[in-house]
Write a structure and sequence with these properties.
Blueprint (H helix, E strand, L loop, with lengths): L1 H16 L1 H15 L8 H21 L7 H22 L2 H4 L1 H6 L6 H28 L10 H25 L3 H15 L11 H7 L5 H13 L5 H24 L1 H7 L1
Length: about 260
């Protein structure tokens, strides 16, 4: 245990020492994403609007779930889910994509998945702006509880970063993960109460889905944005413990396998 703590301290200290490399990686990704596009960074705002509009049309009109203000319910969960899923998809190959850098010079490996998650954090803020615009256009009331979104986001960020770090390491050892992660996330999307409220399900399914580890962080956003309620202490605690567990496992695995990862590439 002491060895793990020591490795972890070195990992975090080195990551801070190489923060300029991290910012360069993040800046490079931002520049490449919309290079030579006509609308440029405007796509960061337009993409979530179009995505949410399509989802809302499909599930509220075609499937007719009959949920009050369903569009807002869908947006509140999708906001968190999109950040989580896109972070995992992009960070799964974060170490492999930078194989040449890692093999040539010493760089703390944490900065590579971290840059991918922070890139998606930029997308999240654009999505949040898009959500505000949609709420204003459609006449949805802004609840006072939205002031707690930064706290919910901090928990979601730590949770996502831990999973992203773990996934980036696992992909080095098992390359097939890159091909399976998209399918697995699609399955989890439908197993997580995002397009449907948990209380609309039969009790036997409700009990099972409550054990879905992705649900507590997403529930925080649904409560704050859609229901206009402050999450219960047990809901904050549950999401926080999951985030802490994710970070400890992810960072712990990376610190233990830090040197071996280079030889596995």
């Amino acid at each position: 245990m002491a060895q793990i703590v020591t490795h972890l301290k070195v990992l975090l200290a080195d990551s801070y020492r190489f923060r300029e490399v991290f910012f360069n990686l993040l800046s490079q990704d931002l520049k490449i994403r919309y290079k030579r596009t006509v609308l440029g960074y405007f796509w960061s705002l337009l993409n979530p609007v179009l995505q949410l509009a399509v989802l809302s049309a499909v599930f509220s009109q075609i499937m007719r779930l009959g949920i009050k203000d369903y569009t807002l319910f869908l947006f509140s969960g999708t906001l968190a889910w999109t950040f989580l899923s896109n972070s995992l998809l992009s960070s799964s190959s974060a170490l492999l994509e930078n194989e040449n850098f890692i093999k040539k010079v010493y760089l703390p490996k944490l900065i590579f998945p971290l840059s991918k998650v922070c890139l998606r954090l930029v997308d999240f803020f654009f999505s949040l702006v898009a959500l505000g615009i949609i709420m204003a256009v459609l006449g949805f009331a802004f609840k006072i509880t939205i002031v707690l979104i930064p706290l919910a986001l901090a928990i979601l960020f730590v949770f996502t970063l831990g999973l992203s770090v773990l996934l980036s390491v696992c992909t080095v050892y098992f390359r097939d993960i890159n091909y399976l992660i998209g399918v697995f996330l699609q399955l989890l999307y439908f197993l997580t109460p995002i397009i449907y409220p948990l209380d609309t399900l039969q009790s036997k399914y409700r009990v099972v889905l409550q054990f879905n580890p992705l649900y507590p962080p997403i529930l925080l956003f649904q409560k704050l944005i859609y229901y206009g309620q402050v999450p219960l202490p047990i809901e904050w605690l549950s999401a926080s413990l999951l985030a802490l567990t994710s970070a400890v496992i992810g960072f712990g695995v990376l610190s233990l396998l830090d040197e071996d990862v280079v030889f596995r590439m």
